[in-house]
Amino acid sequence: MTRTNETRGAPDPSERNVWQALWHGFWQRCPSCGVGKSNGSFLKIVDHCAHCNEALHHHKADDAPAYFTIMVVGHIVVPMLLWSEVAYKPSYTFHIITWPVLTVVLSLLLLPRIKGALVALQWANRMHGFNPDTPDEDELAKEKLPG
Length: 147
Ligand SMILES: [Zn+2]
Fold this sequence. Notes:
Layout (H helix, E strand, L loop, with lengths): L17 H9 L37 H25 L3 H33 L12 H8 L3
Helix pairs in contact: 1-3, 2-3
The structure holds zinc ion.
The site of zinc ion (ZN) has 10 residues, from loops.
């Protein structure tokens, strides 16, 4: 199978810079060109980049974005909560209002960005269907289904 370049204006698809892809993905941009949007809505990844037509529908992020978001937000909020309690001993009302609000806001801000970064990581490492030299896992699964 020959490798076809289905992109225009994008770098050579044989060279994929992982850190650059992560950066683009975190800012919800196409991991290939960094111009087109990778997220069509809050968490929905677009099928193809509107700028370079790179196929992004191969991703299999599953629960990983939520897992990493919980891990990151927890490592921000819990130390801040403990530090504020030790340093200032704020009222319970402060704790009840501040930490849940901060947790929700950080989670909503980070979740789509972490999903974009994970999709970009899969793209950069040619995981799942992102490698044009291997058959698409979804197509293979469809072929195995009876009927
Ligand atoms: Zn693109």
